[in-house]
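Exercise 7.
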Amino acid sequence: MITIDRARQLLDFNLSLITIGDMKLPNFAWKPQQSKALSKDEFEKNYNYKGGIFKKDKTEIPKTCGVGIVTGFDNLEVIDVDLKVLPSLKDQQDFWNEYISFLKDNIDMFEDKFVIYKTINNGYHLLYKCKTIQGNTKIAKLKGQKEAIIETRGIGGYVFVYENQISKLSYTEIREISELDREVLLEISKTYNYVEDTIKPDVEQKEYKGLELKPWDDYNNKTTIFDIINSDFEIVRNLSDKYIIKRFNAQSAHSGYVYKNSGCMYLFTTATCYPNEKLISPFAAYCHKNFNGDFKAASSDIYTKGFGSRIVKEPKEIKEKPIIDSKDLVFPIDIFPNTIQNYILECHKTLNSSIDYMGCSFMWMSSVIIGNSMQIQVKNGWRETTNLWISVVGKAGLGKTPSISNIINPLMKANNNEVKQYIKLNDKYLHYKSLDKEEQKLTEEIKKPFKTQFIVNDITLEALVDLHEESDNSVGVFKDELAGWFKDMNKYRAGSDLEFWLSSWSGKSVSLNRKTSKSAFVEKPLIPVLGGIQPSILNIFYTEENKDNGFIDRMLLSFPDLEIEVYNDNEMSDEILEWYHACIINFYDSVKKQLIVRDIDHEIQPKVAHYSDEAKKEWIRIFNEITNTQNSNDENEYMKSMLPKQKSYIPRFALIINTIDCFFNDKTNLELISKDAILKAEKLSKYFIAMAKKIKIDSTEKNEIKSVLKINDTKTNFEKFKILYENDKELNRKEVGELLGVSRNTIQTYIKKLENDTI
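Solution. The predicted structure, written as tokens, is:
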């Protein structure tokens, strides 16, 4: 209890004091003091009371054991931060540090306006005066707590007097603050109030009864609250579980928040078309903004725009289990959900598409979609992304490009739409920039749009880095023929393409320094590569020169035994095609909405997945088996250099497979890699290892071009070509011509002569 001298000092500064008994209640009538303070003599009498006085009900008034300040008197109000609801001293201090920092960031000259004392229970009192105050109100409760963590003490309240002053102002220096400062103080305090952030089902309407997917539910799944409120609010603070938002041109610092989990908005302000102190879903926001809260009209509107069950449903045949046992397939498509397996098998049946090429394409497409939004932590200090380099190998006419297109077409269309949208926005921007200053003042400002393209075909390295700076989740490279890309890797010049690509594969930052324009930099490169190549061309790259650079070792190769198929009358239904398109677009949209999280600087903050205990055991086994193979004498030098890359690829496979499984099978364990996912990743890795062995053998048997030329160096070009042609009539004529130093036309002349000699 404070001394009587200290109490007299506080009374001198027009504070209304009361004495408090051992039950933490005033031991004398104190309501009159809310408008008129006790005299020093009256207060001292109460202060010195030791007991012995009885009330009318014959209960004894408890003796004085404390002193309180009456709130509400002389416009005094207190924010009471009661931290005892938190479990540990660390939690209490962390909460207070964040809260006080939040206040200081948003209230000018904070330390010159507020008196702060620490309580006996590690709580805090913030004291101030304001022309407008309220009674005792609970401001914020944490989840699962009955007691408030923040509340006001105003009219009809009191707080204990403490001596642990932590502000530069004391009880004798309580200042009056503006109503705006008080509003900011209360708004910030409200941000800590827990509200159940779950979208409740909207009111059922008769016209939509029976639909499997209601229009409003579909709308909530496919949009975000920011799509609706973008012109009304801005994000002013990014917390772990929510965004703090502020109404444009509002004087207050905050207007409410948006939960990251549900995507719902909760507002304090009443100065908008949206309801306040109520959870607002994206559809509810759309309804209030465009139809003044008319639920029926808003529902009808979005239904006409395609939201709801009219989206093509999954055909019955796709729900069935795969009709072919995966063991009979070269590519292990059982790593995919059943629906995707069946689509691949249907394409194989009706379009003669390669199961291997389609399976590889689906992995690449998933890599592009997931991008930098997910990482897997193999162990502390070792993380992998979803980056894949895949080359499908086959002779011309085996349907490499059509097989790939069957899989990636929906994503290509989405990419093309992004490009078209950017061109439109950029044209508007360029037109605006062409106006003179006076014309610009009369026109709404148009900001330079961001490039959102995420798949490229032919593009320079400089343009690729520029694009990746803006499309920072991923930029997929898809080329019908990878030969040109492979050749660029062999340019051993300063700052070569090879150096860039090796760094990007590992996820290391890349940059391009230019003399004529600004330099470009990508901190988290993720550039998945997919394309086709002919065996004869690929074989050329298996050289002694390339053995040490590690580029070929990073390529995942698919070289199935295929023959050109005869025509068949099987037709794929439009229903299946439409279903697959909708399925992939939904996957793409869901990743954008659920996984891509950005910080206050707009940089992607990836979710980090970890192995489950069972998955970790399998990973350790797989890792050690690869290591033992590397150490054995049974593998050639090429395989020993290729196998270590599988130690990076297997976690990447597991991350992609686990993510696909979660999205397509409605699972929620995105950040926990299952045992099933790591075993499927191992199966896929064994496939690519087998393919690498096959291609290396093929290379050894067929790629004798350089050695033949060297051995027969004294022979004429025609004689050299004759030896090569007799060994392999399907050799790449352009490549042979380059090695011989003759034109393609000369090679054609050699062939005609040989064929005529045979006849």
